[in-house]
From TrEMBL:
<dbReference type="InterPro" id="IPR000415">
    <property type="entry name" value="Nitroreductase-like"/>
</dbReference>
<dbReference type="Pfam" id="PF00881">
    <property type="entry name" value="Nitroreductase"/>
</dbReference>
<feature type="domain" description="Nitroreductase">
    <location>
        <begin position="14"/>
        <end position="163"/>
    </location>
</feature>
<dbReference type="InterPro" id="IPR029479">
    <property type="entry name" value="Nitroreductase"/>
</dbReference>
<keyword id="KW-0285">Flavoprotein</keyword>
<dbReference type="GO" id="GO:0016491">
    <property type="term" value="F:oxidoreductase activity"/>
</dbReference>
<dbReference type="InterPro" id="IPR016446">
    <property type="entry name" value="Flavin_OxRdtase_Frp"/>
</dbReference>
<protein>
    <submittedName>
        <fullName>Nitroreductase</fullName>
    </submittedName>
</protein>
<comment type="similarity">
    <text>Belongs to the flavin oxidoreductase frp family.</text>
</comment>
<keyword id="KW-0288">FMN</keyword>
<keyword id="KW-0560">Oxidoreductase</keyword>
Length: 308
């Protein structure tokens, strides 16, 4: 491939949301999955899983829940998950206790999942298909997770669907390269450059106002704020949270549905109780926080199934 060929290939990337009815040949699906697994991965760990949605009713339901009907219409549909559960099982199989690294686990598992899935999308585009990433999964995270029966240490990053386009190609703009490429040190953009980015991106929106489009997601009151609350609760429930203070531990207990908390001295140590009408969980430890964390751990395990 010449440099021009490579550029032309990437210029022909475009996201598709309308698909023809088409059954992906088995050998093409094999290529997609092969490409995904050949992606680089942090420390060889492969911290990701793809849940392929095969049941048409499930695909329709997830399309509905996430506001992305292309989940159902594409030839193949996946929910791309960050997954540290399998890694923990590998460690435990040889007797190594799993470490305490929740923030790094989120960081590297999302990185792994994105690299694998983007490899898959590129392979699909090489075969002439087109696809769509679907972050809309975050609009119905608990529901999707329950439908997919995800265990702890696993959470969806996004959906990815692939198929044969039933819409005209549309090349969408990007901001100027000078804004994304920094040499040796970060260079703050000027006001004029920000205006330039707004002008460059204007054609992507119906009303010609990129900031207005972004605001619907990222400004005060935008959809990301609501997603963030759910995501934080999901990460805490799935075992991805750093609890360093008593305040944070109490917030975690509340997330699990327990607002009634008792901590008391017991012998040399402490005892914590988390209560609600239908369940109580107890922990012990050398400090109030440790006792509470043990009760939370017990409650977290019991809470599997999202009843809280
Ligand atoms: C992480 C991520 C999440 C996305 N979520 C959605 C989505 O929920 N629904 C959708 O229709 N498109 C979604 N997209 C597609 C983007 O809107 C699209 O990539 C962007 O507008 C640029 O267009 P292009 O890919 O055609 O160049 C998502 C893309 C990414 C990378």
């Amino acid at each position: 491939m010449t440099p021009e060929d490579v550029k032309a290939f990437f210029d022909a990337h475009w996201t598709v949301r309308r698909f023809k009815t088409f059954e992906l040949p088995r050998e093409h699906l094999d290529v997609l999955l092969h490409a995904a697994q050949r992606a680089p991965t942090d420390a060889t760990a492969q911290m990701y899983s793809f849940v392929q949605l095969r049941d048409p009713a499930l695909r329709a339901r997830i399309g509905e829940l996430t506001g992305n009907p292309h989940f159902a219409a594409a030839s193949v549909a996946f929910v791309v998950c960050a997954d540290v559960y399998r890694l923990r099982r590998v460690l435990e199989a040889r007797g190594y206790p799993y470490g305490k690294w929740p923030a790094a686990a989120v960081h590297f598992s999302i990185g792994d999942a994105v690299m694998a899935a983007q490899n898959m999308l590129i392979a699909a585009e090489m075969l002439g298909y087109r696809g769509c990433w679907i972050g809309g999964v975050l609009s119905a995270l608990p529901e999707v997770m329950e439908l997919l029966a995800l265990p702890e240490l696993v959470f969806p990053f996004a959906g990815l669907v692939v198929g044969v386009p039933d819409e005209a190609p549309k090349s969408r703009p990007r901001v100027a390269r000078s804004l994304i490429l920094h040499e040796d040190r970060y260079r703050l953009p000027t006001g004029a450059e920000i205006e330039g980015a707004l002008a460059d991106m204007a054609p992507i929106t119906a009303r010609g106002d990129w900031a207005q489009t972004l605001a619907g997601y990222f400004a005060l009151g935008g959809t990301m704020e609501a997603r963030d609350v759910t995501l934080q609760a999901v990460l805490a429930r799935q075992g991805f949270s750093h609890v360093r203070s008593f305040d944070e531990a109490f917030a975690r207990a509340e997330t699990l549905g327990f607002a009634d908390l008792r901590v008391r001295r017991r012998g040399e140590g402490f005892e914590a109780w988390l209560d609600r009408v239908e369940a109580a969980h107890r922990g012990e430890g050398n400090s109030p926080l440790q006792a509470l964390l043990e009760a939370i751990e017990d409650a977290s395990q019991a809470a599997h199934g999202w009843e809280g």
